[in-house]
Amino acid sequence: MANLSLIVFLFFFLLILMHFIFIALSQGKVAMLSEERKQVLIDKRVELVESIKLHGLWSRMRSSRIVTKNDEDLIKLNSTHDQQVGELLDHLAKRTDRDYEAFCKCLKKDNQGHVVTEILRHEALSFNKEDVRQLSSYARKQLKSLYSRLRDIETGPEWAKEFALDLTTFYISLHLQKGETPTTKKKELHQDKIFAPHGNKKSGSVMSLIQSKPKRILVEGDAGMGKTTLCQNLAFRWAYEKCKWKCKFTTCVHSWTFVIYLTAANLQGYDDIHTAVHDHLLPGVSNEEVKKALDSSQSSTLFIIDSFDEGYMDNMLLRDLIQGRVYSNATLLLTSRPNYLQDLLKEFDSKLSTDGFSTEQKLLYIKKFANSKKENETKFFKLLNLIGEDEHTHGLDGDEEQKLQGQHMASLCSSPLYLAFICLLISSGGLQKITTRTELYKSITKFMVKRASRRMDNPMEKIEADIIRPLCRLSFEAYKRNEVNPSNVDLEKVGVNADEVLRSGFLTKKVKVSLFEDPVERFSFSHQTFLEYLAATHLAQTPGDLKDWLTTINARDWEYGHESLKSFFVDLLDGDFLLETSISIIERFTYSHDANKVDRFPASCLLMDFLRHLKAKTLILSPELEDEFKKKCFQIINHIVKHGISGYLDITITFATFSQNVEQQNISKNVATEAKDFIDYLRNLEECPNFNVKIECTDKSFANESSFQDAMQRVIQGSFSSNASDRLTSSSNIPLAYKADPNDFLRIALEQGFGNDIRAMEYHGTDGNRKVGLQSFMRAAMNKPLTTLKIYLYGKETDSDCCEMLAKLCSNPQLKILHISSAAASDHRMLIMQRLSQLSRLDALDELYFDIFTIDMASQEIKYYKQILEKNKMQKLDINGITDELRSVLRSTIPTMTALKELMLWNGPFDFWSSADDHLQLQSVTLNRVSLNSESFDNLCDIIAKWTNLRRLKIISIEIAGEQPNSVHFARILAAIAKCQIYELKMGRQIEDDFIDPLCEMLKSLEQLERLDLEYNNFSSDGKQKIKEFAERREKQLNVYL
Predict the structure, then answer these.
(1) Which of 391, 506, 720, 893 is the most exposed place for a label (fewest CB within 10 A)?
(2) May I ask the CATH architecture of the domain 35-119?
(3) What phi and psi values does residue 607 have, to the nearest 5 degrees?
(4) What is the pTM of this model?
């Protein structure tokens, strides 16, 4: 009887189960393999059995859950390979479309992609219009159902329900600003106008004021400014909000057929968009069905891709989407922290930024929070007053420190995330004195540790030791890999139990949107800034790991790529760790081994040894002095890093040899060694003249040492720096950055560090008010056995003292190469020219380059200029602006300047010498904004054809007067160029499609040509393609720029 009851029970159970399976199938929720694909497996069975190799597939198929270990063992019971493949195909026929697609991916990853392209997908699914309509409707329903997950704004652990904020209640439209460049005036933009037509559209070669809907929209903002919540809000509103009357006449979020919400990291590892959408959002719809649905609605599809900064690495698909190589007609809204897009910024029609909440928005949020949490508004009275008074703080009486703290708190509240944290802490009674973001995260961490301690019945010390410290290491390791979702394996590596961490609330398993069934269990923080805070905590306490990590990044990464982590990290530094980590940073970014370059020399080298000395003395600073010391120290470090990023060289110095036994000079000053004096020392270091210096040495004996770079390091940290730091003792001196004369400091530094045997010096002015820098350079160059001197000036650096020193330097009997480029004021320019024209030493030079603005030269200057040109030592001549008086000088000098190799003419007529008078052997010629008549144009063509040594020709812009059409002029100059043997040709702003055939004909003669620059001409797309195809047919490679 019992057996009969069991049988009846099982019978009814199976009936119920079959009923639910039938319902699921009828609703399309279990997408079994389509009949078309089953037929492919049948029709192509022989080809598949012969082609598929199983050995590398098993682990991939198990990982993708196509087969289990038990399935694999059963299939392998078949004795032959063909039988095993046949059994696998039978197994696949019983699976789903998703498994079929996953199987195709496994084949591709196992280098069997030809099976996919030639056999499995030989017969693609076909869709009629009704199929597409029903498919789109079903996909929309699935997406809208999925986006219900976006209702909560997660700011804390799942067990702390007060941390979950309802999007429909708490969301406040973001304060957006529109601006194309840093210098463009920002314009306010309401969030509802984000998709509306705005801006100018380029039509052909003319900018017309056509209002166009932006196709690529960028929203940038710092951490915690509400970018992710903006994305959630848009996707949620698309799914659950009907279009209101006020937005019916403009593009709004409700107008899209599809809204695809993914993170940048969701696209990593994918070759196409539809597969990513299928895996993460629509697993119940086949891959091909997703593709068909998106393709049919491309122009009405909105892709919302969040957190570019968290998933940009190794993400070619995302780059293709941004650049419009895929889904070019769809609209993309991308969010990112600043400074990550770099070369991709130009791809965006609309560039928006957010600075967070305005004062009104802060006040509104606090009131919403109080009402929603049923809190008495008086609990937030102090915060409300502080924010309300923020804009008027300067006029208030009271304690300056209190006002400053209030301003810091009000600034923190601009971030929607930080304001949420502050409100939650006030609500729970856990808000302490907070003025920085780091202090806020300390308070939140302390609050969560306290709550976890009660929840898990463990002392707070145990939570700190067993969970927080391991999480700090885990966060750092994840941060290095640019990962935001650590796995169970990652937790095990740092020795923490996943269940314990989940109970503590510092990690969660909750995923916002993606349905991707990752075979690896992963966890997440409520916000990336928690990961960054914990990673920074680890770095601040582990200098060894900091030093190792710094070797993996460059100065640009440090300055722009890690802003949030760096902010936490610097705030957390204290005590011995402050000195040790500062030393690690400055060692990493002061000296470039690849370029033999020292940034901010000599202050950077002095700071390095100064910090080492303080560390050796084990000084203990008060918290107030430590904060000031840290601030001043990192100001110098930041200047060092920024100078390194620029890659700009102020000074290049070439030594014949390095001397390590020089007589040392005392550059110190007796002062008391109280801690406050260290701040003065840092201030002196920051204020003294500093340069980006490249040091070279022609002494080959240095190659016998371990490396030239090691020798450089030894010299830089040698006698000069050691002399300074050795004098810093407990009873005597702190080395100052300079004594009475700051201009003499560079000379002292070079002579004490490297010696006097300098053979070449080069100076590049970088700022209009760097007279100190130029004088320092000249003093360092004085009385050195220089054979090469190059000085490039770009502003008001010169004065009468500099001119006199320059004359002395040029009188050096050993000097052979002299370059001077000056944009000095006219009075100083004349003085420079006078000194140079009177120097008999110019006749002994092997090479002279003298470049000045010629457009406003006075008569006396022109006379000096003529005397310099007549010496026939100029190898490079740059003439910018030609007056009638100057034209007469050029006519009598240039044709006979046989030493001249490079000529650049700007802004003036080309009519001051003829082909018959020409004796030049030019190798490079540039013509820009040059005017000619018919006679001078013919003369130019004759001269170009005559220059057999010409290797580089740039005709950027010429204007030809006369009645002949441009086609005649163009043919004439092409014929002249065809007789040259040039390697590089640039022609700009005058060529159209009609001239492509004669251009290509000319190029046939230029067999040695390596580079052709035709940018800024008026070619059509077809014209550009024609030129590219011609270049590809050439025997010798030709790089073309269009």
Answers:
(1) 391
(2) Orthogonal Bundle (1.10)
(3) -65, -40
(4) 0.67
